[in-house]
Amino acid sequence: MSSGQSQKPSAEAQAHHYDPSKYERPSVTVDVVMMSIRQSDLQVLLVKRRSWPYEGMWAIPGGFVRIDESLEDAAKRELHEETGVQDVYLEQLYTFGDPGRDPRMRVITVVYYALLDSERLQVRAADDASDVGWFSMYNLPELAFDHAKILAYTLQRIRGKLEYTTIAFNLLPEQFTLRELQRVYEIILHRKLDKRNFRKKILSTGILEDTGAKKMEGTHRPARLYRFNPAAVARQ
């Protein structure tokens, strides 16, 4: 996407004889990291770039912020234009601004992320992308720009957020077993967790609500089905 037309000084700035041309102004982009649990793996949605720079390479969906839109609006627009995904809650994660991160010009990017059930998405390539696909966070292709660095940082932050937020529930259906919840934690952390300690800790938080229903898991006896209780979080 183009970076849009240059911004003219406001009437108030002109009245005070402010000259914006005195200062160099970098361009601003947004990148959107979409992650989901697929095939017992933490995967990220990537697009294949259609044009220079990094033509034919995989990248995080994103693009330039227009002069008349907010960062969040730009992130949602770019995500929809490049992947067809819309109506997704995005959270701002971090800003990357190394001077040489983009060969076109000085570009600062603001990264957004979302964790969600990929079954709810209808993904397609569009606009600047020639293809779109899901890739394992633990086996990524060669990426454009500094996107490998961005994804490494995102994974680090997501793992930290597991300790004090409820983001893991975004990756689960409305009703789930404790085994399914533990598996989400294990996939994100990329290591096994002790079953007894995990269940004791998660149940002590009070954020789970027993639905009264049960579900068969293999040859084991039926497992209780739980749901996330946002009211419990509000009371904390």
CATH classification, class level of the largest domain:
Alpha Beta
First and last CA, distance: 43 Å
When the domains are counted, the total is 2
pLDDT < 50 stretches? 1-5
Counted beta strands:
9
Instruction: Write down the secondary-structure element order.
Output: HEEEEHEEEHHHEEH
Count of alpha/pi helices: 6
GO molecular function: hydrolase activity
Domain Nudix hydrolase: 27-159
Pfam families: NUDIX (PF00293), WHD_NrtR (PF21906)
Keywords: Hydrolase
Structural commentary:
There is one protein chain. Helices cover 26% and strands 27% of the residues. It folds into two domains: 24-161, Nucleoside Triphosphate Pyrophosphohydrolase; 168-235, Arc Repressor Mutant, subunit A, CATH 1.10.10.10. A hairpin with a 2-residue loop joins strand 1 and strand 2. With 236 residues, the protein is an alpha+beta fold. 24% of the residues are buried. The model is unreliable at 1-5 (pLDDT under 50). It is built from six helices and nine strands; from the N terminus they run αββββαβββαααββα.
